[in-house]
């Protein structure tokens, strides 16, 4: 009796697995067949275009040329909306019109000549910091990259091999793959341009990720979440049983808290002038909360000193600035622990703004650090972060406040500026949730 029941369960499980695999294979085949239909052709699709440095985005039809040598064309499923996407594009050299967006997830539609690390149908996240691994030394538009040599690989993630053209909003060969319907050039943004139903990226700017992950959500790992988490794990390498503090509880600051919790901090101090941010910071693992404007005694430095022991020089072992304000950057350095405190600048201050402190702060052993994309090497590490999310060990869903179709992208920016949204996700393919 027991044997029959057991065989029946086994048989049903087999049928279930067989059906599941058949559906996956079928979906994959349909995707590859439709991709073959567009391969090598110009694709006309919708994109949110910023025509001038200031002003709202316009949803228009654009033409997306096929990928050239060492390039990849991607069907974007979802894209997060971040402050950097609005009106103040990061690089002064950025040209307009431009397709913004740098927190995207998508599927490879076609690949250009010479591409070997990515194939049609792969699920990917575009990277605003590429990773060439110094493997393109003999390619005309690339060359030697000292940042990615074996010798320096562990020191930095700042691959520099296409830094010039990327900053100008063009592909490594100096041209754009985007144009308006009447043939005017539309520029790329940060090597990603994820506010388009299709985009083209260099192969070195694409991280392949596990197919099980929802592409509408994991695009957020293309910037803010990875930056905060990586600042803790890669850049500073926080040790357990220590005290960490973070200034600014937006998406980046919360991701810092997520990292500090995983690293095993015994106290995590959350600092923000907007107290509405505290409950979420608590959910992420913060233990202490302070509003510098209303702090008891009126002095944040004194408050932190007391919280960390009260003796001369006491303070958090690690501090992170996730606002982009040079005053709070100085506080984060000066309030960290004498002798060994490490302070990490994550926030991007307005162009030209300088930081200051007394040089004696360094003499007494404090260290000032900074991070870009949390020190993450995208092609090497991002797939692992996505797997960590799938395993329930990294939060992503919790960062998403709203979801909008592409046509409502300006509304997503309004929600970001009003502080209502931590992050909004834009669905590029008619609300498809793959
Ligand atoms: P956000 O605007 O969502 O969050 C900022 C938070 O800081 C808000 O909660 C705000 O209330 C708080 N704040 C503002 N002024 C404050 C003050 N004086 N004291 C205390 N709190 C204050 O921003 P975000 O998306 O979390 O990004 C944070 C910063 O990180 C930005 O400067 C962004 O450009 C930068 N960033 C850097 C990298 C990198 O690679 N280094 C990557 C992504 C983002
Ligand atoms: O290599 O010179 C360089 C610059 C690398 C880009 C660093 C960007 C970090 C800031 C990102 C801000 C938000 C997206
Ligand atoms: Zn490189």
What does it look like?
It is a single chain. By secondary structure, the protein is α/β, with parallel strands linked by helices. It has two domains: 40-222 and 400-427, Quinone Oxidoreductase, Chain A, domain 1 (Alpha-Beta Complex); 228-372, Rossmann fold (3-Layer(aba) Sandwich), CATH 3.40.50. 28% of the residues lie in helices and 21% in strands. It has eleven helices and 18 strands. The chain has helices spanning 2-38, 163-168, 215-218, 224-236, 251-263, 278-284, 300-307, 326-334, 360-363, 378-390, 409-417, and strands spanning 43-50, 58-64, 71-81, 98-99, 103-111, 123-126, 178-180, 185-186, 198-202, 206-208, 243-247, 267-271, 288-290, 318-321, 342-345, 367-370, 400-405, 423-427. The strands form three sheets. Strands 3, 5, 6, 9, 10, 17 and 18 form a seven-stranded mixed sheet that branches. Strands 13-12-11-14-15-16 form a six-stranded parallel sheet, sandwiched between helices. The protein is globular, with a radius of gyration of 23 Å. The two termini are 42 Å apart. Residues 1-7 and 13-25 have low confidence and may be disordered. Bound molecules: nicotinamide-adenine-dinucleotide (NAD), lauric acid and zinc ion.
Question: What characteristics describe this protein?
Answer:
18 strands, 11 helices, globular, disordered N terminus, Rossmann fold, 2 domains, seven-stranded mixed β-sheet, binds lauric acid, six-stranded parallel β-sheet, Quinone Oxidoreductase, Chain A, domain 1, single chain, alpha/beta, 434 residues, binds zinc ion, binds nicotinamide-adenine-dinucleotide
């Amino acid at each position: 009796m027991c044997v029959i029941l057991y065989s029946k369960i086994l048989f049903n499980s087999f049928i279930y697995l067989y059906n599941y695999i058949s559906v996956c294979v079928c979906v994959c085949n349909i995707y590859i067949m439709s991709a073959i239909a567009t391969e090598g052709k110009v694709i006309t699709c919708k994109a949110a275009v910023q025509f001038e440095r200031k002003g709202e985005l316009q949803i228009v039809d654009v033409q997306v040329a096929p990928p050239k040598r060492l390039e990849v064309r991607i069907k974007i499923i979802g894209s997060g909306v971040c402050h950097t996407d609005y009106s103040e594009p990061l690089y002064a050299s950025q040209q307009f019109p431009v397709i913004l967006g740098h927190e995207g997830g998508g599927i490879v539609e076609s690949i250009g000549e010479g591409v070997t690390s990515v194939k049609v149908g792969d699920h990917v996240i575009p990277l605003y910091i590429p990773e060439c691994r110094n493997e393109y030394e003999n390619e005309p538009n690339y060359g030697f990259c000292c940042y990615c040599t074996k010798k320096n690989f562990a020191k930095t993630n700042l691959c520099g091999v296409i830094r010039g053209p990327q900053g100008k909003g063009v592909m490594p060969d100096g041209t754009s793959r985007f144009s308006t319907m009447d043939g005017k050039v539309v520029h790329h943004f940060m090597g990603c341009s994820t506010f388009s139903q299709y985009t083209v990226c260099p192969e070195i700017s694409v991280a392949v990720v596990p197919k099980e992950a929802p592409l509408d959500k994991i695009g957020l790992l293309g910037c803010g979440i990875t930056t905060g988490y990586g600042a803790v794990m890669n850049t500073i390498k926080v040790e357990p049983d220590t005290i960490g503090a973070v200034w600014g509880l937006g998406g980046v600051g919360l991701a810092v808290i997520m990292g500090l919790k995983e690293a095993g901090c015994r106290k995590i101090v959350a600092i923000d002038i907007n107290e509405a941010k505290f409950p979420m910071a608590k959910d992420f693992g913060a233990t202490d909360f302070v509003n510098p404007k209303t702090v008891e005694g009126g002095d944040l430095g004194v408050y932190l000193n007391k919280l960390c022991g009260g003796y001369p020089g006491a303070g958090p072992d690690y501090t992170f600035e996730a606002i982009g304000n040079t005053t709070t950057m100085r506080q984060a350095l000066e309030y960290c622990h004498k002798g060994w405190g490490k302070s990490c600048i994550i926030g991007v201050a307005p162009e030209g703004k300088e930081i200051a402190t007394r040089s004696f702060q360094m003499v007494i052993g404090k260290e000032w650090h900074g991070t870009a994309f949390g020190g993450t090497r995208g092609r090497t590490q991002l797939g692992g972060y996505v797997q960590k999310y799938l395993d329930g060990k990294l939060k992503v869903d919790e960062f998403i406040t709203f979801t909008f179709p592409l046509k409502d992208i300006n509304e997503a920016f309004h929600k970001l500026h009003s502080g209502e949204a931590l992050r909004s996700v834009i669905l590029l393919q008619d609300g498809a949730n793959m």
